[in-house]
Amino acid sequence: MHFPDSELVLNDLGQVYHLGIFPENISHKIIVVGDQERVSLIGDFFDSIEFQFQHREFCTLTGLYNGKRLTIISTGIGTDNIDIVINELDALVNIDFKERVPKNELVSLDIIRIGTCGILQPEIPLHSYILSTHALGLDNVAHFYPIDFSQEEIVLNNEIIQHLQLSDKIQPYVSKASSKLVLSLESVKTFKGVTVTSSGFYGPQGRSLRLGLKIESMNDRLTTFRFKDHKITNFEMESSALFALGKGLGHNCATICLGVANRPNNEFSKGFSKEMDDLIRYVLDRV
Length: 287
Fold this sequence. Notes:
- The protein is of the alpha/beta class.
- It has one domain: Nucleoside phosphorylase domain (Rossmann fold, 3-Layer(aba) Sandwich).
- It has 7 helices and 14 strands.
- The strands form 2 sheets. The chain has a 5-stranded mixed beta barrel, surrounded by 4 helices. Strands 5-6 form a two-stranded antiparallel ribbon.
- Helix 2 (about 80-95) packs parallel to helix 6 (about 240-250).
């Protein structure tokens, strides 16, 4: 398999096109965040920084935390950017850029997303740690790839579709987080559940402003879903593609979010900088 210039796109320096970095610039343990400013915020916890670079919304920082070499990358908002970041991270570790062929020995990355989210269960307080076991993708990114979804993912997806009574124009998918990473991140502080990954912040998350909504009461149906030990805990905008593409490429991916809004209770945090610092430290100590 040979990747031509139009498929494996490198810049004039031979770096991946969007991230603008070389393979040696990243660790095999990576934290991804949406917000560019959160990269330097996490970097402030590091003992030392060896590399830092930004191209467009993609800011990369690599350094040491308690003797562990870690990389932080901002993805920006949305699964479209996750498509870019995951493919280029995989290319950095698993493609020979000179020969433009896959490497003989493939690397499996550990990728953890730290983000913020809207809570969908009334009993979960603001500033809780929401740990995703699965993501329900209301985007379409994974549909462009031959992802081998498990029977568990397919059954859970079908149960959710039946419960939500979605329009035929929406074809959701369920992708599972890495069990290994979920186990490393869970504690008495975490609430586990299915995360909804939406394709927007307003209508796709049930927010009705002047334009109104085509699908009514979807949030209520998300909140009331129950199947075996599964329930839907939160909304965000990246995890479905992260889990699906990560699994398809052989990487371990997980998401843990700080709940900054409780949608059933109509609550939004008045400020969460300290709580985000605490979550960052929580994750860094468990990577």
